[in-house]
Amino acid sequence: MTYALSTTNGLLVVTIGSRSASWDGVELRLGFTPQQIDGQVFLHGLDLRKNLEPLLGGFRLNSWTNRVIVIDPGHGGANMGAKNIFNGRDEKEYTLDWARRLEPLLAMNGWKVFLTRTRDVEVSPTNRVNFADQHTRTCF
After folding, report:
1. Which letter, b or e, does each residue of 10-38 get, where b requires 16 or more Cβ atoms within 10 Å of its Cβ?
2. 22 shares a domain with 6
3. Residue 134: which of 111, 116, 110, 121 has the closest Cα?
């Protein structure tokens, strides 16, 4: 069974037994499946607090200015991360690949994007934090 909740800030659609929901037609993933108990819909408290309350409260990305994000692909260099048991590739390859794919998508949507690493090098945790601090402070 599918239920819709119309608010002044948008339309929430949930399906009993499915973690997939939508907000104004945009898919979102809930942490827990909605349940129907005695004819009433129940959503987990964490989903309400972390996923739905910001949307119900009128949170809009379009109102932001100076949208800056620092993506930290993690691992790199001698720090290989976990190894994929299916193909033997290292986690560091996947983290960098995802960061590189995400960067242009965010940039197209108005974000100024910085990556802590753009090639296979190891960056210390301290340098990652300093990089993020430096790039987010200078953009405001």
Report:
1. bebbbeeeeeebbbeeeebebeeebeeee
2. yes
3. 116
pLDDT of residue 140: 53
> Cα separation of 32 and 39, whole Å?
18
Residues 113/107, Cβ–Cβ less than 8 Å:
yes
Of the three residues 59, 80, 99, the one that is the final residue of a domain is: 59
**Domain stops at, among 35, 59, 83:** 59
CATH number of residue 53's parent domain:
3.30.457.10
Q: Same domain, yes or no, for 11 and 54?
A: yes
Q: CA-to-CA distance for 121 and 73, rounded, in angstroms?
A: 11
Residues 42-100 have pLDDT tens digits of 999 999 888 888 887 765 555 556 788 999 999 999 999 999 999 999 999 999 999 99
pTM of the model: 0.56
**Cα atoms in the 13 Å half-sphere on the side-chain side of 26:** 6
| Share above pLDDT 90 across residues of the chain, in percent, rounded to a whole number | 66
How many domains in the chain?
2
